[in-house]
Amino acid sequence: MGLVQIPNPALADVTNKVASPAALRSVKRAQKQLSDLQPVAAADDFVQVKAFLRTPPFSDVRKNCFVIVRGGDEGPMAEELQSTYKAFIASIEKIDSTASLGMRGRKIPEIQLSEEYLLVESSINDFIKVAEEATLLPLE
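Above: the chain sequence. Below: its structure as tokens.
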């Protein structure tokens, strides 16, 4: 019978803290790519919105944001990091849901996707602003 190794939660936080700068760079790449979504959303192209959300680097943004949140989990900015993360993810889920409904033939007001794009844009900006500060904090 072999030994079962129980993961050390402190080690996981340190690993995420060390990985946070790379994750933040990836989130910033997704932020730059986000401008490509604006004309697609303005044109109410539901299929292209869904495709955009599933194309790297944007498709990896949730995973990378979570690494940053876990890295700052016990830091002084943990609550703000968590709330901006939740707001950003909620905005992505909202635009994705709207695109799904539009693809299935539901009547979506013309300006709705554009407004949801602006919400995604502002929430990623808010998250990155907090994440930049949180990743600068030294390891404890």
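The chain has one domain: 10-136.
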